[in-house]
Amino acid sequence: MEMIIDFPGGSRVDAHFGPHTVATDQPPMASAPTPFAVFLASIGTCAGIYVLGFCKQRNLPTDGIRIVQRMQSNPLSGMIEKIDLEIQVPAGFPEKYRPSLIHTAELCAVKKHLENPPVFDVTTRVVEPVA
Question: What is the CATH architecture assignment of 35-115?
Answer without folding.
Answer: 2-Layer Sandwich (3.30)
